[in-house]
Amino acid sequence: MENITLENYLEALANTGCSDNEKLRQASEFIESAKEKAGFCEAMMKIASNPEYNQEGGFDVNLAAAIQLKNMAQYHWMNSQDGQLGGFNDFDDEEPVEETKGVIISQEDKEFVKTNIIQACAHAPSFAVLALFEEIVLVVAKFEMPDRWPNAMTEITDLIQHGEEGKVFGGLTALKQVVKRFEFEFKQNRVPLDEIVDTLFPTIENMLVNLMDNMGESAMKAKNIIMNTLYLANNAKICKRYRDSDNFNSLMSVAFKGLTQEIPEEFTTPTESTDIIDKLNKNDFWMLKKKCITLLNRVMIQLFKENEAEDDLKALSKIFLENHSKELIDIAFLILDLSLTKFVASEVVSCAVRIINRTDKAPNLLAIVLERHEDIVFKYSIPLLYLSPHDIEEFTENPVSYTRGLYSLTISSLSARSYAIDMINYFVTYKENEKDESVPPYLEKFLTHCVETMSQPSEDFRIKESIMLAIGHLAPHILPYESLHAGVENILKDHIFPELQGENDFLKARALWVYGEMPIFVKDSHHAVEAVSNTYKCLLDECIPVKVLAGTSLHKLSKIKEAREILEPGIDKIIEAYLKIMQEIDQDELVNGLEEIINLFDDKVAPFAFELIQELNNKFIKIAESNADSLSDATLAGNACLSAICRILSAVSKDKDLLCRIEEIIYPSILLCLTEEGLDFIDDCLDIPVLVVYHRKLISEKMWDLYFKKFRMALGDENDEEECENGGIGFEFVPVMMSFFQNCVSFGGESFFNYQIEGVTPFQLMVKSIRRIITIERNVFSDVYSTSVCAMKLMGTILENHIGKIDEVLPDFIKLLHSELEANPTSKIYRSSILQTFSICFVYDTSLTYKCLEEQHISDPMLKFFFSSMGSFTKTYEIRRVLYGIASIISSDLTKAPELLKSETSAIMNVVVVLINAYVNAKEKEIKQELTEASQMKVIESQGLEEVDDVKEILTKLKEIKQNEGKLMDFGLDVGEDDDDEADELIFTAGDLELYDSPLEKVDAPIYFKNIMSELQTMNPDLYNTLTGFLSKEQNDILAKSFEKNEMLLNIEKE
């Protein structure tokens, strides 16, 4: 293959389209090999550009060559001559194709493409080839502009100004792609775009104005290209040129002209044919209107943002309000009017609705729209929600695909339907004064309008389906107004419920969805029983959308007391129905529904938990082995299966024999998730072994095997240079693995020290891994500490669970703690975790800790840092560990303590006062937050049907404590810096399931300390007097009140 001729390439390309499999194979192999040869891109461009190579009626060799050239550019242009492989850069939405990596395009080929691609756009033999050449221009522009393609803009300018139609088209097409290359650049990186706009846009604007009244095919295509280019230039940010008032007005004028031009009647005739609709949506007339209205919408978004527009746009905002706002809003309403009786491209309608919705950001614009308030509510809202012919066709012919898109059909950010829902929610519930607590004036009117419309017989089921959709989305807006609740339940009874028993599957599916959105309004017990009974029957329906929506709604209705009572005897049949549906469709919302049913009836699940987990596990394995995309419905459903398994495990947690059987069947799935192919499922999967180990309270051989595999996955192979430095594929999941590791330490018993794999015990592996975790994180993230916090947790877990058994490693632990503190970590949470672990060293063995400190000559720095940091501990879990450490210090033989500690013995109680005060205040805050969340969740989950008096009573008690006692004053020590914010703390405590019972949590910390002091008063009164003798009356009062308040809080916790 050293000397490949053009004829060789032509023959191979022609054979890629033949029916002879052997010729096809040979041709494909030839082309793959030839890609690595210099001259391949040059040959493909020459073939793609020359129509003479195409045989009449034969295979399109031009197109085949253009595809090869486009793929070469798209996947290999970024690969450099030194063998460094690139990937798609920030401009790309796609990911590189792995099979095509490694090919290096020769510099000669690159130069040939750069020199000829723009001219090739002007001579493309077909629009299909031109479309591929466009993509090549974009790729080359991404990697070569502005510095390494200096002639590009000169060539484009020459073509645009040439006058010959083909060359003008080629120049405009190339210009559009170059502009696209800079579309999302900002600041200095956007300067080249502004230069291009200043140089060429006056020319193309004049061209657009001159072409505007020309309705010929070529003129329409040229107008579309130019308008698209104007849109791309101003999409992310209005260009500098158009921040000038004259140029801005010109831009608005030409966009309005294109938007308001009449369209031939043949392109506005209503049709139910999806094929015709697809063609009309892509028609040049509608494409032009789409580009014009999209440009106007983007300009409006930038001028009227949630927060104020940029300073240099404020003048434009004023110009827009004075000169263009009314015209744009009138056009938007004109489009909506037209859509009631004519065909209007869906994206044009969608954009018109968005423009109307956007006026809520500008009072002056909103005032104009509110002049048509009644039209919005009563004329446009329901028709805009009509199912499209595409929806109806898909529901009938491809119900699985329709069902997977159910949520996008109702709330997708891209659908006209979703914007119409936003419009209804805003304008139906609009009030001039947001503080006015009365019912919005149009809300009750709209509900009445819906009832009147549904009461009128109609053959068009879409009307009622749209009304039900609108009412369902209004549920949260209706909820605050109790005066409407009874009327809404009547709507459900009289107009929605009958559809549960009806023959129309569209209406049945929508009725099920409505009941799922509005269970709070089902107050009548007979209504509740009937709604739930019929929803259950729909689980057994033949129509896939119907039974899926029954599955996603039943669990919400099941929270009604009467519903639970009727469903409870048949829970096994309900779960069986869910599993049957899950065999037909991968839908995470469906699995979530099953999970909620299991949660509601957890005490009834045990008899068939094993079979249920088997089904879910088999479903998961099938999904995992299908290699579905990480964001696909299948992957989401796979994760939902794992989540449901976790819920079942929690429900049967007391049955240890059952947990053992479940461990056997689920183990292969866990191992699958520890591979690179299973990473999409690892978050949910890692919770399963935590639940098994925590509730079995022993570690089986399989779980020890998993223990070793998890560490290997997280930390990689030490013998592999890259993994030794950067860790394994699962390093980022170490925080999620923590509960499993901690429970293995806690329940491992002697096997933690004796069980071996390849001569290494779990204890030895963990000790070694602690330092490796810290080292890897420093290598990968020099200033991030989230995984290092986990290392400290592991160290503390070993110390608190195996007192007296690990003396040989304590010196190394203390040495590591000192070195990490000495490195002055920037994270307050990491510093705190180090000091908490240091405190647990005293709990483990105070005398041995003193000895280690003295032998390493670090007593003074460690103790000074420890005691000077007391004001920085603000969370109960921090303070608890520190209090236990200090309690160990004062209950030990202080004569063996380092000199610094002996000399400051009397000051220890000053620290204790601060800590116990802080602990009680933190505990109060945590309980308040928990009770508030519990109260809210109880209201939400019960849909307002369950009593919450007990929660309110507890909250009242807390309020009384606060009023009577006041916040205990902070004493003495300076408070440290503010804690890391909540987001940072979430990172450091990451783990979806934190199940681990620390031995230090068995007794409340202040009570434990109080007991230690009582024992000390009896056993060593001299030390007791030394510790307490220097406390002031104020400090003693604070301590007494703290203990008293802590008792109150403990009683509240029990309640």
UniProtKB/TrEMBL annotation:
GO terms for molecular function: small GTPase binding. GO terms for biological process: protein import into nucleus. PROSITE patterns: IMPORTIN_B_NT (PS50166). The keyword Protein transport applies. The keyword Transport applies. It is found in: Cytoplasm; Nucleus. It holds the Pfam family IBN_N. It comes from the Eukaryota. Keywords: Cytoplasm, Nucleus, Protein transport, Transport. Residues 27-123 form the Importin N-terminal domain. Its main location: cytoplasm. InterPro entries: ARM-like (IPR011989), ARM-type_fold (IPR016024), Importin-beta_N (IPR001494). One of its GO terms (cellular component) is nuclear envelope. This is Importin N-terminal domain-containing protein. It comes from Euplotes crassus.
